[in-house]
Each structure stands twice: as C-alpha cells, then as structure tokens.
C-alpha cells in the first residue's frame, strides 16, 4: 500500500503507548490510513493531520480496560478503529473485525496481512447475523450507532459478564440516559461512563461501559422474532 506525505510526525506520547513490536505496526497503520484509507474513502482527508491524536491514540487507550486474553468483536469496524489498534497494542487479545461492507472488509484484510496481525480475523456481516454463532468477552464500537441500537446488536454477542465498550465522547452521558429502557430490557449488570487515557491523550477517551447480564424474556423473544 502506498504511503502519504501528509501524515504528521507522531507525538512523543505515541512511543509510550505503542511499545515494543506495537510501534512499527502503529506507524505502518498510520500510513495506511493516511494513504489508501483516504483514497478509498474510509477516512476523510481532513482527518489525516489528526490520525495520531484523534484516531490511533484515542483508540489505543481503550486497551486499558480490556481484560487479559479476552476475545473481542469490533462491531462496524470500518477502517479498523478501534479493533486494529487494540490488536496492535494487545497481542494477547483475539480480535474479530465485524463489518458488513465488502470494500471495507477487503481493506481490513489487506491491513491485517500487511501489519502481520495473527490475533485478528475479519468477518463480513452484521451483528444480528453473528448472534447465536459466536460469543465474546468484549464488544467494541466507535461512531457506529446510538447506544440504544448498539445494545441490541452487542448484547447477544456477549457472554454473561462480558462488556460493551462504546466510544461516545461528549454525547456519552446523554446516550446513556436515553438508553435506560434498553438497558433494563437486556438485564445488564452495570452501565457507566469510564474515562481512559487521562494524562496521555487530550481530551481523554470517554466510554460507555456496559456489563452484560441475563436478558429479560421480552428481549429474548424480540431477538427470536427478528431471526424469523
């Protein structure tokens, strides 16, 4: 894949976040995003100067709250944010990049091959199609859908006690309040705002963290009806 000369130099903190083998992979991924990622419409050209701060580092600090040796599904992975970044930072985590669009899964497959990420697989499909076939410890999502809709996609993919990590930024508190009915419907154990990366990224990354419980019967019935 060709590189772009528009990419700014990585900030000093990047070497503190991406250590060891993660550093050359992070650099290579930054160039992929700035070049082919822009050319193929997965990232806007105005985002290139912000690739390190807004995208790579912002996603990397999410790894702070991912349990050791977890299985993780990145819902609506797009250009691989945050899934590829988490796979780079945490080689102990098994990452599934879930994306319905062919042009995006083709890009993701190429990224995984070029970055040599043995802990990553790419699946073309929607969360609803994967439900009942696989379960995960963690589901991640960034700029995919409002939280109430994201809950209906992610909860069926999580084992009991698994967690959704939704990157939500300034809208996090409002979306959490708006999803109150869905949270009850799915019988979640806890739902809270979590801030990660304080002192390393500015602004820190805000997550909605939802720990899956046992869904109410109405939620189970709704899922069965959608499959018919």
Automatic annotation (TrEMBL):
Subcellular location: Cytoplasm
Keyword Thylakoid: no
Enzyme Commission number(s) of this protein: 2.1.1.-
Keywords (A to Z) from UniProt: Cytoplasm, Methyltransferase, rRNA processing, S-adenosyl-L-methionine, Transferase
Major localization class: cytoplasm
GO molecular function: methyltransferase activity
Binding site for S-adenosyl-L-methionine: 76, 81, 127-128, 142
Coiled coil: none
Pfam families linked to this entry: GidB
GO biological process: methylation
Family, as annotated: Belongs to the methyltransferase superfamily. RNA methyltransferase RsmG family.
Function of the protein: Specifically methylates the N7 position of a guanine in 16S rRNA.
PANTHER family named in the record: S-ADENOSYL-L-METHIONINE-DEPENDENT METHYLTRANSFERASES SUPERFAMILY PROTEIN
Listed name of the protein: Ribosomal RNA small subunit methyltransferase G
Species per Swiss-Prot/TrEMBL record: Sphaerisporangium aureirubrum
């Amino acid at each position: 894949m060709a590189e772009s000369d528009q990419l700014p130099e990585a900030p000093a903190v990047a070497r503190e976040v991406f250590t060891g083998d993660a550093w050359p992979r992070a650099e290579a991924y930054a160039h992929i995003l700035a070049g082919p990622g822009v050319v193929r419409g997965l990232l806007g050209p105005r985002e290139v100067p912000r690739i390190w701060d807004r995208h790579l580092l912002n996603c990397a600090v999410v790894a702070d709250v991912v349990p050791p040796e977890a299985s993780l599904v990145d819902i609506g992975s797009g250009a691989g944010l945050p899934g590829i970044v988490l796979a780079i930072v945490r080689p102990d985590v098994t990452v599934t990049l879930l994306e319905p669009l062919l042009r995006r899964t083709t890009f993701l497959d190429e990224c995984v091959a070029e970055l040599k990420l043995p802990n990553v697989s790419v699946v073309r499909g929607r969360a609803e199609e994967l439900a009942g076939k696989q379960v995960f410890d963690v589901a991640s999502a960034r700029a995919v859908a409002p939280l109430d809709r994201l809950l209906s996609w992610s909860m069926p993919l999580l084992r009991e006690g698994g967690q959704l990590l939704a990157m939500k930024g300034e809208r996090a508190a409002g979306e959490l309040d708006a999803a109150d009915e869905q949270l009850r419907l799915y019988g979640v154990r806890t739902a809270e705002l979590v801030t990660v990366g304080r002192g390393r990224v500015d602004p820190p990354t805000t997550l909605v963290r939802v720990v899956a419980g046992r869904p109410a019967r109405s939620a189970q019935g709704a899922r069965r009806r959608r499959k018919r």
